[in-house]
Amino acid sequence: MIDSLEKRRMFGSLVTLAIPVILEEMLTMFLQYVDMAMVGRLGAQATSSVSLTTSVNWLIGSIFGAAGVAVVAIMSSAYGAGDREKIRKTAAQSVLCVLGLGLCVFVICQVLSPHIPVWMQADPAIRKSASEYFSIISLPMVFRASEIICASAMRAVKDTKTPMAVNLGANILNVVLNWYLIYQKGLGVRGAAIATAISSVVAGLLMFVLMFKKKDLRFSFSDLYPDAPVLRETAEIGLPALATSATSCLGHIVFASLVSSMGTTVFAAHSIALSAETVFYLPGYGLRSATSTLIGISVGQNNRESFRVVEKQSVALTVAMMAFTGALLFVFATPVMGIFTPDTEVIRQGSRVLRLIAVSEPLFGLMIVSEGILYGLGQTKTTFIVETIGAWGIRIALTLVCVKMLHTTLFEVWMCMFADNTFRAFALSLPLFTGRDLGYFDKRLERSHLKKVASP
Q: Which candidate, 73, 78, 70, 6, places its Cα nearest to that of 456?
């Protein structure tokens, strides 16, 4: 039986793990904010050039993120069980994932970069600059993969401070390079792209070196060969997570293309509002990451009571935090939009939709943390089903009606997004409130094939 003192210790562990991840997520998003704010001063066309492929970049990041989900689920359970051999093998396989996925995505992005602005129905005036921007930031794909996957490996063994420090350094570098290349050298959108690419290279290199130097994750180069059991488990967890992210992000791309067809001003308002909203829900994603790690450790320890305590604490904390950030977003919607653009019409439209979506932030938090719990259990198939229905059956279907048939404003389009978020929140949290999560716990423990159960 877990007493109140132990519950407080577990809550402290959740918060301690989450805070660096929250800061890391905010620093990563700051990179995008800096690009948009600096380029935004050049006008609406420059803003649209940078933001047009944002959804595509989310899709790219989700590919590496899916591998990260699998790494956290596998490695955290091994860490909880004290299975050092499996930790070492998983770390080595993560490096192979970095190289394989990074190279494949690099080639695909370079081939598709001239066509993506056309597929996104962008204004012909911005297609060339948008294509060039996407092509440049896609060059260091191996390093972007390293930045995400190696960070996941470190978080799985309860080190969330190192990834935060690396991202802090990369973001400072990005700010300096943005100022120099955009304004001092007059490179505009191209300068923002080069700055982002360079900072990605630095972050990816540092993340790999620091992961390799960490005692818990150190492996021999003789381990760098495909390990069938680890790769099979990685695929079982990672492929549904990838399918989930791909389905959701492709939905975002279609969603963005539909909004893009409404005109440059509307799309600029939509893009800036999306980025502005992001910083207000990043605390939820930080808690999701910490939750996944602690859930995985509970599985490795075969501790069902600890699992339920982590689950309840993370849900309560995330929903409360998102309610607070949602209130802030509602109150400061207009000043936040003004950070990124001087265009009064863009600010007006963006502020209106930000206040709408702020109301749904607690539900969005419930969705995020429920997803984190399921990821920690390796239960990624459930999230795939829910994300697919939400993205395509609700958001895209309703947006098509609004844009193509009813010719509504941006506000009604964001109502479709509101409906999608509400559905996902209730659908993903259903196993938590019906007790089905305990069945997922037992299934994950059975499939993990851990050699021993002991505290690391």
A: 78
